[in-house]
């Protein structure tokens, strides 16, 4: 199976001829105006477009003789019209053809060529005078005319040499008319009125069209529409086809042709000034002065200079592809490249700034010319240069490629101007964020950073100030790449952070710096949090308050919910900075300061526990933080889950004592019980941790029927007394009911009977006080079951053990009396302690529920 054949697109050129013809010898039944021949590939739509532009009347100023000689036929006038299209352009070449086959005079023969995709350096007007244009005369010649295989080639009469000879003819001053004509055509090509030029003949018309075309690149000339020969009555129709310049006989060039700008080739117009008065035509019409006319007049100083400048114009255009170039840009670049033509430097610079093409970015040599223009155009002062560039931006700015060049020029200047950087800030640096990444400038930035790292200044504070300012500029300009970040980290570590961590130099530094960008803050936070000068001090003593406020200015920190969802975020540098600020406020802040930082307290606690778990950090006063900003039981559960080995039991004591029994309290109690033999937290032993363990174990105890169990007996002996003593000495009476009952059970039913006599006697008053305080809460609501033989299932409760209800003054008295009696009993022998345990078991049984 053969591969499908590729179907090529239509050729670049398509041609047809249109005339009135009838060839009887070929047997044609019809005649009249029609398409005579057409090349392959011309679509129906193209045929219609090409046919519609044909003028079937040639109204010459000097009509052909009735019986022309061969010389008359050769000299007959011709008309060539060119109109740009969306993809290329179209030519209509017409000439008188005498009488048609029926004998009717006034026949016209039109040879039409469509250029679908212009791709060479030929300006359309250069095809004027080509012998390839078909122009038969007479019916037989018309019938015999056949389309050539190729489109008409340049005729050679409108080349550069001919145009310069025409313009610089010493006998006729044409530069003034050219200047006005160029500016009028520029206006027309940008949507302004069409231009009508009166010429003595079509050859002169073609030269004027050639003059306009040669002062733009070939690609730009292909977007310039024109006609070499029209009459005042056909001007409007011709202009409607996309034509910008229509040449007419001198007598037809009168004022008021459908609002067009009308000029005569022999006029002496009043020339205007760029940026000032406009031109004034001979008929009084005003034409704004553009840089095009100024550049052209400068170039036409002599034939040699003009030739070199125009050749350079075409070479520059070709170098960047000559696609969609502004008409004046190549000529302006040629003027800039030649110092002899710098009389028009301001005009050329303005064109280059406004019209440089995007493709220029791929051509370093040409781009360097633009860079030089920008550098010369900007004021020498950085402040003034930034102001000019900012005005460019607000006013629409220069061409995009020029804007990028301006960014590189201004950045190079800034990197070399340390005084400006010291005085500038984010408002000025923000301008540098508008330019795209540039590898050459990034390399220059790395050199600057390397120099700062290696420099050994005598003033550490000044060096730190310069380093932060430079980094702020580079980060705004996105000039700190991967290798640059290593240099930046080294610079901060060696030069900046030691000053920030100094309690005196740090505040002075941040006061002098003022605000910096968000990226700079983040980089500084990372550098500070990882520096030994910071980590080696406890939270609250690492940075001066002024430095802390400066480092966290308008920077978002993780919320409690975010920390719960991702505990690893507590390791972020910003969390360390904020935690240091919170601890500092707890240590020495006013009440207003403490209220202001209250929202960050959970984060500070998360950070402190993270540092305890990670190691390598100085320990911090977590107790003071928790005292100032108490946590809820839910918060403690999240912290215990995130840092199970590093939450000190003493921190949980308030919720153990005051929160009602529930799943969260039960979780914390079990956590303390499971981890009471673990490692020290924050590197030191704390007596309250052991007390918290005792409270947790007492609150968790609900198996009283096994009082003889050695573990429970040891636990009661070890933890029961500290709990009762702490309750009697320091705890509030408003404890949860389940905890009050446990205290009573421990005191009456379990703890005192098994203590040695000396210990019972020594601490009886603490037990009495504990029971009296417990009694203030009223009945316990807590019951046990008596499992002694013969009493299985009989309910027993603390009220029975104490001889009355738990509550009221009578309860306090009964409990004190009972405890006092127990304390005066003789010591129970070791063997008797088991009996006491059995008695407790028989009296208490098993706890049915928690209060």
UniProtKB/TrEMBL annotation:
Residues 13-148 form the GTPase-associated protein 1 N-terminal domain. InterPro entries: GAP1-M (IPR045401), GAP1-N2 (IPR045402). Residues 770-796, 818-851 are annotated as: Disordered. Residues 784-796 have a biased composition (Basic and acidic residues). It holds the Pfam family GAP1-M. Residues 826-844 have a biased composition (Low complexity). Residues 175-252 form the GTPase-associated protein 1 middle domain. This is Uncharacterized protein.
């Amino acid at each position: 199976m053969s591969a499908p054949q590729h179907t090529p697109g239509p050729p670049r050129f398509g041609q047809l001829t249109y005339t009135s013809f009838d060839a009887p010898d070929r047997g044609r039944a019809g005649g009249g105006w029609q398409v005579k021949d057409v090349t392959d590939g011309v679509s129906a739509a193209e045929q219609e477009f090409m046919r519609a532009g044909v003028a079937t009347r040639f109204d010459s100023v000097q009509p052909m003789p009735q019986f022309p000689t061969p010389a008359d036929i050769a000299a007959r006038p011709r008309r060539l019209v060119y109109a740009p299209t969306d993809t290329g352009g179209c030519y209509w070449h017409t000439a008188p053809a005498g009488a048609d086959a029926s004998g009717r005079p006034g026949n016209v023969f039109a040879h039409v060529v469509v250029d679908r995709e212009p791709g060479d350096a030929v300006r359309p007007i250069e095809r004027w005078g080509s012998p390839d244009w078909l122009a038969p005369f007479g019916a037989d010649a018309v019938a015999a005319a056949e389309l050539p295989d190729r489109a008409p080639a340049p005729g050679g009469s409108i080349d550069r040499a001919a145009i310069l000879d025409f313009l610089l003819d010493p006998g006729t001053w044409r530069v003034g008319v050219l200047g006005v004509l160029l500016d009028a055509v520029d206006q027309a090509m940008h949507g302004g009125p069409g231009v009508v030029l009166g010429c003595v003949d079509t050859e002169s018309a073609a030269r004027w069209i050639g003059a306009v075309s040669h002062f733009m690149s070939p690609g730009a000339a292909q977007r310039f529409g024109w006609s070499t020969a029209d009459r005042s009555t056909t001007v409007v129709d011709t202009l409607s086809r996309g034509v910008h310049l229509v040449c007419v006989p001198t007598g037809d060039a009168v004022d008021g042709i459908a609002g067009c700008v009308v000029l005569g080739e022999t006029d002496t117009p009043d020339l205007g000034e760029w940026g000032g008065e406009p031109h004034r035509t001979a008929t009084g019409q005003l034409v704004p002065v553009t840089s095009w006319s100024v550049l052209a007049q400068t170039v036409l100083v002599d034939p040699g200079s003009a030739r070199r400048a125009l050749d350079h114009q075409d070479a520059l255009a070709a170098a960047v592809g000559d696609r969609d170039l502004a008409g004046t840009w190549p000529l302006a670049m040629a003027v800039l490249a030649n110092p002899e033509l710098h009389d028009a430097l301001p005009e050329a610079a303005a064109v280059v700034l406004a019209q440089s093409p995007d493709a220029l970015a791929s051509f370093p040599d040409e781009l360097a010319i633009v860079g030089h223009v920008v550098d010369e155009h900007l004021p020498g002062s950085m402040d003034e240069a930034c102001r000019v560039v900012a005005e460019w931006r607000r006013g629409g700015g220069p061409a995009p490629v020029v804007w990028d060049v301006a960014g590189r020029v201004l950045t190079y200047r800034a990197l070399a101007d340390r005084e400006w950087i010291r005085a500038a800030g984010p408002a000025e640096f923000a301008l540098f964020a508008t330019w795209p990444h540039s590898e050459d400038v990034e390399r220059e930035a790395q050199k600057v950073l390397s120099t700062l790292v290696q420099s050994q200044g005598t003033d550490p504070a000044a060096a730190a100030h310069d380093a932060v300012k430079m980094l702020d500029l580079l980060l705004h300009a996105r000039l700190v790449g991967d290798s640059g970040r290593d240099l930046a980290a080294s610079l901060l570590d060696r030069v900046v952070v030691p000053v920030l961590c100094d309690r005196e130099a740090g505040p002075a530094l941040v006061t002098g710096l003022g605000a910096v960008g968000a990226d700079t803050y983040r980089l500084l936070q990372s550098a500070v949090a990882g520096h030994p000068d910071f980590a080696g001090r406890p939270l609250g003593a690492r940075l001066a308050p002024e430095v802390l406020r400066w480092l966290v200015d308008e920077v978002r920190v993780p919320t409690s919910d975010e920390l719960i969802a991702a505990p690893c975020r507590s390791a972020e540098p910003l969390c360390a900075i904020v935690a240091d600020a919170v601890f500092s406020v707890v240590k020495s802040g006013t009440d207003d300061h403490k209220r202001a930082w209250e929202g960050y307290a959970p984060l500070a606690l998360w950070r402190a526990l993270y540092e305890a778990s990670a190691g390598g950090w100085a320990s911090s006063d977590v107790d003071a933080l928790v005292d100032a900003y108490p946590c809820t039981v839910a918060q403690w559960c999240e912290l215990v889950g995130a840092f199970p080995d590093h939450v000190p039991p003493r921190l949980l004591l308030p919720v153990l004592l005051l929160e009602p029994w529930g799943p969260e309290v039960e979780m914390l109690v079990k956590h303390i019980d499971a981890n009471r033999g673990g490692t020290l937290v924050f590197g030191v032993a704390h007596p309250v941790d052991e007390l918290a363990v005792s409270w947790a174990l007492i609150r968790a105890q609900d198996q009283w029927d096994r009082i003889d169990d050695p573990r429970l007996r040891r636990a009661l002996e070890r933890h029961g007394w500290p709990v009762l003593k702490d309750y009697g000495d320091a705890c509030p009476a408003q404890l949860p009911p389940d905890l009050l009952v446990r205290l009573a059970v421990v005191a009456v039913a379990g703890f005192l009977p098994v203590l040695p006599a000396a210990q019972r006697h020594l601490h009886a008053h603490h037990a009495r006080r504990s029971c009296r305080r417990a009694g203030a809460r009223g009945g316990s609501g807590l019951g046990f079951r008596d499992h002694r033989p013969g009493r299985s299932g009989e309910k027993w409760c603390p009220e029975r053990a104490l001889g009355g209800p738990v509550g009221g003054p009578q309860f306090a008295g009964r409990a004190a009396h009972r405890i006092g009696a127990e304390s005066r009993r003789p010591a129970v022998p070791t063997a008797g302690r088991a009996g006491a345990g059995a008695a407790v078991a028989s009296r208490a049984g098993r706890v049915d529920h928690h209060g």
